[in-house]
Give the backbone structure.
Amino acid sequence: MCGIIGITRGPGLDAGECEVLDVLVEGLARLEYRGYDSAGLALVGPGGDDPLWRVRAANGTRSLDDLTKRTEGAPADPSAGIGHTRWATHGRPNEENAHPHTDCHGHLALVHNGIIENHVELSDRLIADGHHLESETDTEVLAHLIESHLAAHPDEGLAGAVRAALAEVRGAFALAVVHDSEPDVIVAARRVSPLIMGVSDGAAFLASDIPAILGLTHDFFILDDDRVAELRPGVITVTTLEGEPVEPAPLHVDWDLDAARKDGYDDFMAKEMHEQPKAVADTLLDRLLPDGTLVLDEVHLTNEQFRGITKVFVVACGSSYHAGLMAKYAIEHWARLPVEIDISSEFRYRNPVVDEHTLVIGVSQSGETVDTFQAVREAKSLGAKVLIITNVVDSSMAREGDAVLYTRAGPEIGVASTKTHLAQITALEVLALYLAQVRETLSPAEARGLLDAMGSLPDKVAEAMTRGDAVHAVAERFRDSPSFIFLGRHVGYPVALEGALKLKEISYLRAEGFPAGELKHGPIALVEPGTVVVCVATRTPVWEKVIANVAEVKSRGASVVLVANDGDEETARHADEVLWVPATEHLFAPVIDVVPMQMFAHSMARLHGLDVDRPRNLAKTVTVE
Ligand code: AGP
């Protein structure tokens, strides 16, 4: 995800108020949590004859600082401006791909947050019409598309051109456009990606979220999907894509800045858990097509190369390892390929059996974990094909791999992986189904059923997220318990491991995850009255075995919390407490079943008064061996 911001101010304001450049730079600083691969801004001079001025920098977290040092040539007293901070999804995080993007002649500038699904067909048409596109991004297409409509119908103005252009666009967008022929106008539009607007005497503002412009006003307007806004100093007008006037919903906000950065949530982990439906949906976007086929064009491994694979290795650490474990079940079941899964720091030193027919999948949200980075380098040296699954475009691992499949969860601030973990499982299951599609190990009917189930995952994750109060009550009941055991079988086992890790890392409580069938081989000695056993008991082919294991721990005095499918009273009979989740195809269940585990750990840590975003001894990215 990226951050966008814009301000237009009329000449009526005193020079010191709402300086355009200051507002843009401060706003971008507040939006950096949404991405910081690059930053850029464009200013429009007060008179219609001033050229549009643009500056961009691609220097990671120093991008914004670099911008402020490159203001030579900027209009002295601009009337409007837009800014962008980027989390790359299409195109490397370099200056050519940094927003704002312009039209062919530099009269129009545009910033965008989202993914334009049909950008290839649009750019092909625009290039055929003589447009020159400079970047690898999907966004630049929008600038040229609007340019073409403005040239065709200049009387419709910038807003009319934006409406006409967006009628041709598929995908998600929150965008802002300026043109030097209308120096105090910003045109904004939104579909799925967030966009908030504000107005004060003599100025109007827009941003990806409230914190970026909090303080300039406390009176905001929400721009609904498929709405186009024209911002003029002190005035905002909104229409539908067809040009029908509509009234935007007003929103008064009294938050302070820190609360606002977390979008009103108590901490980033809570905010990021609530971003999980979108993280899963974005990871599926333009890979799971409406006609039910999967495309992984960006992976750059041919189907021939995929068909030549005889063995798969997955290497990862922590939560990424748990995601990899889930992939083992999916790839073996659907694609009938043998999968080995290894903790990265073990893989490197055990002389693994790898050759040119091995596909090694490195899973790392940061793309910088040194254990996994070294493991994939070892795999490459042994002749394997390496596919990286990461959340950071152009990260060290992304550059090391032969192929990359990006998750699209946006930056994750909380140390505990939540939305990136769900996005990893989603990406791995897309890959598993793609391997099955290429190897023709699933019938068309089976594939169709599975792809339909996959398409419903974002909504089911959103539904699971609505149960936070019930989960919190369970955490409250067991807040003083001395130890926790997490159990699961089959794909429930990595969910159990992830549940134990989440509880350990943010609440510092003793928690271990085991395969439910392994308990009787020793770990059951840990069970005594007062032990809390959290078990994944959603419906899978091994559900009856799980219930038998639950009976074993109950008979030894444990308190049992079961993750169960909505309405499954038969399972609930075996539980002291139930964490209810929507049902899905059992190999997709981890995407949903892990959600109450995350919420349970989050509640427990909050009940213990701990800082869930910065847990002791931990770092977000482990770049040491
Ligand atoms: C999980 O909540 C932790 N943040 C940690 O286990 C993490 O998953 C692990 O360090 C791997 O990080 P990566 O995905 O960036 O490689």
